[in-house]
């Protein structure tokens, strides 16, 4: 019994003897800093914790930096010149706003195809954000050269650009994101291209789940299409999930439902051989999930095999606020991932899927 180990590492054993002094000596010999396994976590949890603490420290250092701006100061300094170049580069990469009216003519509202309505609503949301981004970039570009007055909003944007973070003016109209400025802009442009390809070429065979502003609207549209085609009340329908062996592309769309990609698994990995949830590899914090087949089905017939109900979040923050629609701004839904390990194991691991990473 004294050799019984409470953990895989073998660091936490039964005391060799149960008398008082022996137990005290055994406790003193335990590691001073508890390993993640003590709390049911994977060894990678240490890396995640250290990354978050480092990011918090660096962000705090950024906040201590002062930035002096004025309406007519010009861009004589290195900082001002850098902002001019940065804003000019970002503004040049922005596309024109979507012509929602023209798209409405090409993709009219149809009773049996809710995707047209979903597309139109997404364009309106992204146009709103695109307008704010373009306006503030141009305003800071002019103000940094002394050609316009630096308002409070533009000053906040200017300071954010210097620090490499996303301005509050953008985030007030944006989807949730924890990316730094450069990665945010690249991700934003990828989302706009995803929608433009949809407009030009029709609905994609595989939908990029990360590209939606309001993901729940898209998912509801898929359920609505199924319920209307089969004349079933939508509140009696839900999604069932099949993880395919395809990583990113597929030639043919499914017979019903949709194919989706773009999810990242945190706290575990998807085993491509056993097609089940498995432990993460050491020092690999995230794993991409292959294409998922979202299959609408009757709730009453739901009888899942052993699986883990994995939550989907938009960001690693894993928290949000309730919108007026009743949906969370961060939590999306649960998906079922096959597993021969009890759910409580993965809950202790903190396993979740994300639509985007922080870098």
Automatic annotation (TrEMBL):
MF GO annotations: dynein intermediate chain binding; dynein light intermediate chain binding
Span of domain Dynein heavy chain AAA lid: 3-45
Domain Dynein heavy chain C-terminal: 54-354
Residue stretches spanning the membrane: none
Biological processes, Gene Ontology terms: microtubule-based movement
Protein name: Uncharacterized protein
InterPro entries, per the entry: AAA_lid_11, DHC, Dynein_C, Dynein_C_barrel
GO cellular component: dynein complex
Source organism phylogeny: Eukaryota, Metazoa, Ecdysozoa, Arthropoda, Hexapoda
């Amino acid at each position: 019994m004294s050799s019984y180990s409470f953990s895989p590492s073998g660091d936490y054993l039964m005391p060799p003897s149960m008398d008082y002094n022996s137990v005290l000596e055994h406790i003193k010999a335990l590691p001073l800093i508890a390993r993640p396994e003590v709390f049911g976590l994977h060894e990678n949890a240490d890396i995640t914790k250290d990354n978050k603490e480092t990011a918090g420290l660096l962000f705090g250092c950024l906040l201590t930096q002062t930035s002096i701006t004025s309406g007519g100061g010009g861009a004589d300094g290195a900082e001002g010149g850098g902002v001019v170049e940065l804003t000019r580069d970002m503004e040049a990469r922005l596309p024109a706003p979507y012509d929602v009216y023209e798209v409405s003519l090409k993709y009219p509202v149809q009773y049996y195809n809710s995707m047209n309505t979903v597309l139109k609503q997404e364009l309106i949301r992204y146009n709103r954000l695109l307008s704010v981004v373009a306006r503030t970039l141009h305003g800071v570009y002019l103000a940094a050269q002394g050609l316009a007055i630096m308002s409070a909003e533009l000053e906040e944007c200017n300071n954010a650009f210097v620090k490499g973070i996303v301005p509050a003016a953008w985030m007030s109209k944006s989807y949730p994101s924890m990316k730094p400025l450069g990665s945010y802009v690249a991700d934003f442009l990828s989302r706009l291209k995803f929608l433009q390809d949809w407009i030009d070429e029709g609905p994609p065979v595989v939908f990029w789940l990360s590209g939606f502003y309001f993901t729940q609207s898209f998912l509801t549209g898929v359920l609505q299409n199924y319920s209307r085609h089969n004349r079933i009340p939508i509140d009696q329908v839900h999604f069932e999930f099949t993880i395919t062996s395809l990583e990113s592309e597929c030639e043919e769309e499914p017979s019903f439902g949709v194919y989706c990609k773009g999810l990242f698994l945190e706290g575990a990995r998807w085993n491509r051989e056993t097609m089940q949830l498995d432990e993460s590899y050491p020092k690999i914090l995230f794993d991409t999930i292959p294409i998922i087949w979202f299959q609408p089905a009757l709730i009453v017939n739901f009888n899942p095999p052993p699986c883990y109900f994995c939550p989907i979040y938009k960001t690693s923050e894993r928290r949000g606020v309730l919108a007026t629609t009743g949906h969370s701004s961060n939590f999306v839904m649960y998906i079922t991932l096959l597993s021969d390990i009890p759910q409580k194991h993965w809950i202790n691991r903190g396993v979740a899927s994300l639509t985007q990473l922080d870098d």
